[in-house]
Automatic annotation (TrEMBL):
This is AT4G21390-like protein. PROSITE patterns: PAN. The keyword Signal applies. The lineage of its organism: Eukaryota, Viridiplantae, Streptophyta, Embryophyta, Tracheophyta. It comes from Neslia paniculata. Residues 52-133 form the Apple domain. PANTHER family: BULB-TYPE LECTIN DOMAIN-CONTAINING PROTEIN (PTHR32444), G-TYPE LECTIN S-RECEPTOR-LIKE SERINE_THREONINE-PROTEIN KINASE RKS1 (PTHR32444:SF242). Keywords: Disulfide bond, Signal. GO terms for biological process: recognition of pollen. Signal peptide: none annotated.
Length: 149
């Protein structure tokens, strides 16, 4: 490998390798936390379960967009879909869907397994839309105020 990030699955599932990372080269995708602090081979796990995992009808899962990334392995091509909104909807209808992207000339690609071998680039790469619970998206996050009397 040319860099540490070129080592296959360097940061584990749902971990992203970034040679310019401010807190080391491995970090978790937003909405995820390390399974074992300091042991990146175990990767990251979702902080908040998805709507379909919680069996509730309030709120919708959302997508966080990572730009300039190396796409993870094990995608399922959905060549019949070329419209990003159709690809997004197909992903939302499947609770196993963790991410999607649409690539010109290829179409929709969906990831139903753990995302492995993610790498952040300074430029180039692709955009990847990662499914997270709606509460993980900044503007929708509710803050609690605790008043001590």
């Amino acid at each position: 490998p040319d860099t540490e990030c070129d080592q296959y699955n360097r940061c584990g599932k749902f971990g992203i390798c970034d040679m310019k990372g401010t807190n080391g080269i491995c970090s978790c995708v937003h909405g995820y936390e390390p399974v074992s602090v300091g042991n990146w081979s175990r990767g990251c796990r979702r902080r908040t379960p998805l709507k379909c995992e919680r069996n509730i009808s309030v709120g919708d899962d959302e997508f966080l967009t990572l730009k300039s990334v190396k796409l993870p392995d094990f995608e399922i091509p959905e060549h019949d879909l070329v419209n990003p909104s159709d690809c997004r909807e197909r992903c939302l209808k499947n609770c196993s869907c963790n991410a999607y992207t649409v690539i010109g000339g290829i179409g929709c690609m969906i990831w139903n397994q753990d995302l492995v071998d993610l790498q952040q680039f300074e430029a180039g790469g692709s955009s990847l839309h990662i499914r997270v619970a709606d509460s993980e998206i900044g503007e929708k996050k509710k803050s609690k105020i605790v008043v001590i009397i």
